Amino acid sequence: MASIFFSVLLALSVLSSPFLLNANAHTKLGFSADLIHRDSPKSPFYNPTETSAQRLRNAVHRSVNRVVHFNGKDASVNSPQTEITSDGGEYLMNVSLGTPPFPIMAIADTGSDLLWTQCKPCDDCYTQDDPLFDPKASSTYKDVSCSSSQCTSLESQATCSTEDNTCSYTLSYGDKSYTKGNVAADTVTLGSTDNRPVQLKNIVIGCGHNNAGTFSKKGSGIIGLGGGSVSLISQLGDSIDGKFSYCLVPLSSENDKTSKINFGTNAVVSGNGSVSTPLITKSQATFYYLTLESVSVGSKNIKYPSVSDSYGSSSKGNIIIDSGTTLTMFSTDFYSELEDAVASSIDAERTNDPQNVLSLCYSATAKLNVPVITMHFDGADVKLDSSNAFIQISEDLVCFAFRGDDQLAIYGNIAQMNFLVGYDTVSKTVSFKPADCAKM
C-alpha cells in the first residue's frame, strides 16, 4: 500500500545483459537496492535552498496529510474505491518497464498494491517532467482480459469492457486524485547494488490513460509494495520467499549515505539483537498490521488501549507499520499519556511549535536528557534511540516525533531509522534489529 515507504528515490540502475527471471518461476532471488530519500541531493525533489530542519518540517506536514492515505480503507469491505492519498510516500523508486526497458520514477509505497504509471495516449493526464510510457513501443506489453486471474485479483478496482473484453482499473485517492487505465502485463526490470539487474516477466501493471489530482510532476506513478495480491512483493512471491527488508539512514546523516531495500535471501533479519512480532492479516490486505501492547518511558509502562474495530477484532493488529509516514501516530488519549510521561522525564522548559503540528517541543539549544522509550510489540521489545524520538524541525526547535490522531495508529519511519526492518509475508512476521544503516 501507499506507504516503504517515505519519499525516497530507490535508485535501481538498469544495465545491459540482465539476469532474466520469469516472475512465475521458482528461481530463488536475493538482491539489494539503494533507497534515496526524497530530500536527498540525489532526489529530483531536492531543494538546495532548504535547510535540513526545513526539510524535516516538510516531511512532518506530509506525514500528517498521509493519514488520509489509510483512513477509511478498512471501513467498508464493499467500498468500490481505494481510499489512499496520492503523493504521500517518502521514497521514490526507479524501475524500468517493457522491452526495451523504459525507465520510470515512481513513489515506492508500502501502503499501495498496484504498480501504475502514466501511459500514452494520455486522454487526461497530470503534467509530468519525464516522458510517458508508450505501451506500443514495448514488445512484451499485453493488455489482460476480463476473465484473467490478473483482472479478478484487482476485485472492486477492476471493470470490464464489453466491447473488447479488456480489463480496466480505477483507483481513487482520499484527496480526490485518481488514476484510470488498462490492466496489463509487462516486463519490469529492477537494478541491484551488485550491478546485476533482474528482469521480472509478466508483472501486472496499471497503464494510466486518465490521471488527475495532486500528483507531483517529478514522479510518474506508484510502485505498490503492500500486502495485496497485485503488489510487487506478492507478484515476486516464491522467488523472494515473501521476504523484503529495509534499513533507513537517519535524516540527520550528513554523509549522504543511502538507505537500502533488500529482497529474498538478502532480506533475512536474524542474529544477535533481532526480535520478531506477528504480522496480522485483516480484511484490507494491503496494509501491514502489528500488535502494540504498551510503550515504556524509562520504568513507566503505559498499556496501549484495546478498542474493538468495526469487525469486532480487539487489540490484535492495532497499528500499521509504514515507511511512508514520517511521524508515529497514536490515539489522542494514549498520546497524551505518553507525552506527559516523556515531558515529566525531561528537565527543560517546553517551547511551543508555532505551526501547532507537534505538541512536545524544546529549544534546540537545551540539553535534553531523553528517557529510554521502548515499543512493546507482541513478542518484540524495540528500544528507541533519542534520534528515533526527537527531531529538529527548525533552527531553534526540537520536537517529539510522535503525534495524537484518532483516525488510526501508524508506526512511522523516524522510529524505524537505524533498524534493519524485515517483512516475512509467508511466516507472517516483522523483525527488528538495531543497525548502523549508513554502513550497510
TrEMBL record:
Gene3D superfamilies per UniProt: Acid Proteases
Domain named Peptidase A1: residues: 91-433
Record-linked Pfam families: TAXi_C, TAXi_N
Gene Ontology molecular functions: aspartic-type endopeptidase activity
UniProt entry tagged with the keyword Hydrolase: yes
GO biological process terms held by the UniProt record: proteolysis
Signal peptide annotation: 1-16
Protein location: Secreted
GO cellular component: extracellular region
Family: Belongs to the peptidase A1 family.
Name of the protein this chain belongs to: Peptidase A1 domain-containing protein
